Amino acid sequence: MSATPHPAPVPPSGASTGSRAPAPEPQPLVVRTTRIDPLPADLTALVDLLPDTRPLTWVRRGDGLVGWGEALRLDSFGPGRFADAEAAWRATLDRAVVRDEVRLPGTGPVAFGTFAFDDGAGDHFDGARPEGSLIVPRVVVGRRGDVSWMTTVSPADQLDAPGSEALARTVRETVTSPGRVRFADGAVAARDWPAVVAEGVERIQAGELDKVVLAREVLATTERPVDPRWVLARLAAGYASCWTFSVAGMVGATPELLVRSEKGLVTSRVLAGTIRREPGMSDDDALLHAAQLARSSKDLEEHEYAVRSVARALEPFCSSMNVPDAPFVLHLPNVMHLASDVTAVLDPATHASSLTLAAALHPSAAVCGTPTTAARDLIREIEGIDRSRYAGPVGWVGADGDGEWGIALRSAELGEDPRHVRLFAGCGIVAASDPQAELAESEAKLVPMSWALGGLS
Ligand SMILES: C=C(O[C@@H]1C=C(C(=O)O)C=C[C@H]1O)C(=O)O
User: Fold this and answer.
1) How far apart are CA 428 and CA 369, in angstroms?
2) Which residues contact 192 (CB under 8 A, 6 or more apart)?
3) What is the pTM of this model?
4) Distance between CA atoms of 404 and 354, rounded to whole angstroms?
5) How far is the CA of 366 from the centre of ligand 1 (A)?
6) What is the pLDDT of residue 254?
7) Is the Cβ atom of 410 under 6 angstroms away from ligand 1?
8) Is residue 270 lining ligand 1, measured as CB closer than 6 Å?
9) Considering the domain 181-453, what is its CATH architecture?
10) pLDDT digits (tens, 9 = 90+) for 232-247
11) Ligand 1 pocket, 445 CB below 6 A?
């Protein structure tokens, strides 16, 4: 399955970055943001606005951003994918003409982005598929509490001025359900996956590394083409405390925030250590399970590696940092996680954007392992699937560099054939991991996406 870019509708909009294709000079973008009538405090109010089947989305608890159309797309390749994307974004902004009447995070020029897990140096690199994409939509609608806004972007200001009337005039294609869904094994069958995990455990016990995160894929085939808006509405309503995202065919609802950078304050929500939540489990039982998770030395060890990797990566960019002494338990409908919110003050002298921070943080021990290089090598050697953009950064960046980047977990990649979807789930493996228990954990992590497709009731 590939992440082939869709052609942008307005020339010359398809700028490519990276060494293999020098970026053509982009046309100046004309960007206007205006307040609109407040959107209702409804979990799906934003995603319900999306007019077509190529939605851009970053939504949590009814707040966030949705976008459509493609004013500009910046694809990047290989190990330089973050730096090249950032340089192209800055060059675009240098030439942009901006009128922002709202001035909140997410107003003015915004690019949605999705980046591959691997830097392309391994065997999976196919040389054609971009490992990074930043997309500047033609229209963005945002909501932050009582304030809602609309931004229009055009190389030549051919669009209507933004505003509630312009939004009301947007023609929306009907959202259709994917119909019946069939699930099948991916490159590694479910019954063979415990052996992969067992190999990981063995290598850890042999002292090669401390932790590795191993993932598997499941292939879904649907009766009708998947309309990502169908999936997004279900995820936004069913997993309200997660960040529901959609960028260039990568969709999901992640509970893990790689980094938010807003007005000098940096936040990262680190997750590692998981326990399944059985369907129908009572609140009392859930609390018992939570207490068990909070005491599990295996999960605490896994968590500690992840928190340390985040703190270490943020340190060079921050003047102060708060790392909680102990994690809290994050309750989700399908699983509970050990979670830590790391907060820090950005050192202004570094001029680091949210994308720079995401690049520095990726891959954290929560999705790769410890030490990073040994874990990444082992993933390449034994995992047997192409992660593509699963477990990579997904989110948005604004004109001042502030933005939010999640880790693309509880996610799926929509195929070029819109009836084919790849679902992903992975588990942190340490010396004490039990392969069959990890298989059950991976099944629980697949629930949000299979449910959103309609494959589970
Ligand atoms: C790798 C995934 O999740 C990660 C692994 C976790 C774990 O092993 O406990 C928990 C949260 C995430 O950091 C995934 O959902 O695919």
Assistant:
1) 7
2) none
3) 0.93
4) 7
5) 6
6) 98
7) yes
8) no
9) 4-Layer Sandwich (3.60)
10) 999 999 999 999 999 9
11) yes
For residue 222, the cross-strand partners are 181
Q: In degrees rounded to 5, what are phi and psi of residue 408?
A: -70, 80
Ligand 1 within 6 A of 271 CB?
A: yes
State yes or no: pLDDT of 15 exceeds 90: no
The residues annotated as belonging to the active site are 211, 256
Asked if 68 and 248 count as a contact pair (C-beta separation under 8 A), the reply is: no
Distance 152 CA to ligand 1 centre (A): 36
**Mean pLDDT, the chain, integer:** 91
The full set of domain ranges for the chain reads 14-169, 181-453
Question: pLDDT tier at 23 (50, 70, 90 boundaries)?
Answer: low
Instruction: Kindly give the distance from the C-alpha atom of residue 273 to the centroid of ligand 1, in angstroms, as a whole number.
Output: 7
Indicate whether residue 335 lines ligand 1 (CB < 6 A).
Answer: no
SS (H, E, C) the chain: CCCCCCCCCCCCCEEECCCCCCCCCCCCCEEEEEEECCCCCCCCCCHHHCCCCCCEEEEECCEEEEEECCCEEEEECHHHHHHHHHHHHHHHHHCCEEEECCCCCCCCCEEEEEECCCCCCCCCCCCCCCCEEEEECCEEEEEECCEEEEEEEECCCCCCCCCHHHHHHCCCCCCCCCCCEEEEECCCCHHHHHHHHHHHHHHHHCCCCCEEEEEEEEEEEECCCCCHHHHHHHHHHHCCCCEEEEECCEEEEECCEEEEEECCEEEEEEEEEEEECCCCCCHHHHHHHHHHHHHCHHHHHHHHHHHHHHHHHHHHHEEEEECCCCCEEEECCCEEEEEEEEEEEECHHHCCCHHHHHHHHCCCCCCCEECHHHHHHHHHHHCCCCCCCCCCEEEEEECCCCEEEEECCCEEEECCCCCEEEEEEEEEECCCCCHHHHHHHHHHHHHHHHHHHCCCC
Choose which residue among 376, 427, 449 to substitute to test ligand 1 binding: the one with the highest number of ligand atoms within 8 A of its C-beta. 427
Q: What is the pLDDT of residues 395-434, one digit of tens each?
A: 999 999 999 999 999 999 998 899 999 999 999 999 999 9
Structure tokens at 16: 């490519």
CA distances from 314 to 344, 346, 401, 409 (A): 8, 9, 16, 21
ipTM for the predicted complex comes to: 0.99
